């Protein structure tokens, strides 16, 4: 249960970051996102003039990713790290002829994704159970930051994509790695070193992994200003309304940790130390 989360659990999930740890992390903390947003999407969202609430911003990010992935001309899409299936359901509502497969190592989330109107596949990102050249699109919407090693996921994506197919990744990234040594990087992140439980990939590393798999990068968009700052502002402005609902499910220390993390996230985003990128890469030949 959410209320039984111990600080030690959070530390172990953060520093080990194995697949089992990531599953436990999401099982324990995903309800926090749904409490705050009122929906079933598990992403930070793309905030714009037409998206001023978390749920609107999350749908906007799905729309932006769907357009970038050219889903209107796709037939078979695999959504890797599919969460609760809400993005798949959104894309299915927009693109009626689309076949979507939700791929997730988290069996509990897959069981809770039955309204996604998609195939549900229990598998790891680094061993995709699809035939070579069999899919049109591979999408990782705010999930690839957990994939380890990232290169293996990208090579698997290149393998299963048909010629001309697209890999699209929406991923939070860290821009500190080229500026600071690892210890200074850890200290600069502050509380996010504990609460941002991902691999902290740098943009250059993600691009290198994609190119190393023989894919051609067609677009790379930095959208951090549309993600972190507006999300932080929303939480800070609405904290007093959200706090009772969070405390009904989680211990006090966790809400305080969330609050401090939001403040740090905004600071690092304003400073340009963290970013969020959308990458689109095409398979130009069979492998």
Automatic annotation (TrEMBL):
<protein>
    <submittedName>
        <fullName>Methyltransferase type 11</fullName>
    </submittedName>
</protein>
<dbReference type="InterPro" id="IPR029063">
    <property type="entry name" value="SAM-dependent_MTases_sf"/>
</dbReference>
<keyword id="KW-0489">Methyltransferase</keyword>
<dbReference type="GO" id="GO:0032259">
    <property type="term" value="P:methylation"/>
</dbReference>
<dbReference type="InterPro" id="IPR013216">
    <property type="entry name" value="Methyltransf_11"/>
</dbReference>
<feature type="domain" description="Methyltransferase type 11">
    <location>
        <begin position="78"/>
        <end position="169"/>
    </location>
</feature>
<dbReference type="GO" id="GO:0008757">
    <property type="term" value="F:S-adenosylmethionine-dependent methyltransferase activity"/>
</dbReference>
<keyword id="KW-0808">Transferase</keyword>
<dbReference type="Pfam" id="PF08241">
    <property type="entry name" value="Methyltransf_11"/>
</dbReference>
<dbReference type="InterPro" id="IPR050447">
    <property type="entry name" value="Erg6_SMT_methyltransf"/>
</dbReference>
């Amino acid at each position: 249960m959410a209320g039984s989360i111990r600080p030690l659990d959070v530390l172990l999930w953060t520093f080990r970051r194995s697949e089992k740890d990531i599953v436990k992390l999401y099982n324990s903390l995903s309800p926090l996102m749904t409490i705050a947003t009122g929906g079933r999407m598990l992403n930070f969202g793309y905030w714009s003039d037409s998206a001023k609430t978390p749920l609107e911003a999350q749908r906007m990010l799905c729309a932006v990713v769907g357009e970038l992935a050219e889903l209107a001309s796709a037939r078979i899409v695999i959504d890797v790290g599919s969460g609760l299936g809400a993005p798949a359901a959104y894309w299915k509502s927009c693109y009626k002829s689309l076949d979507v497969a939700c791929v997730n190592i988290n069996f509990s989330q897959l069981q809770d994704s039955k309204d996604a109107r998609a195939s549900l596949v229990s598998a790891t990102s680094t061993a995709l159970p699809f035939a070579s050249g069999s899919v049109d699109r591979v999408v990782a919407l705010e999930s690839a930051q957990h994939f380890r090693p990232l290169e293996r996921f990208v090579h698997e994506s290149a393998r299963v994509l048909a010629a001309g197919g697209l890999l699209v990744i929406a991923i939070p990234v860290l821009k500190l790695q080229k500026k600071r040594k690892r210890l200074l990087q850890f200290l600069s992140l502050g509380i996010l070193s504990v609460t941002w439980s991902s691999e902290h990939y740098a943009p250059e590393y993600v691009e290198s992994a994609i190119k190393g798999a023989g894919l051609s990068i067609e677009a790379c968009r930095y959208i951090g200003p549309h993600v972190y700052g507006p999300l932080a502002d929303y939480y800070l402005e609405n904290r007093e309304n959200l706090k009772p609902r969070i405390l009904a499910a989680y211990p006090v220390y966790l809400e305080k940790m969330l609050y401090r993390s939001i403040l740090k996230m905004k600071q690092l985003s304003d400073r340009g130390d963290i970013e969020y990128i959308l990458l689109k890469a095409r398979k130009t030949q069979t492998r």
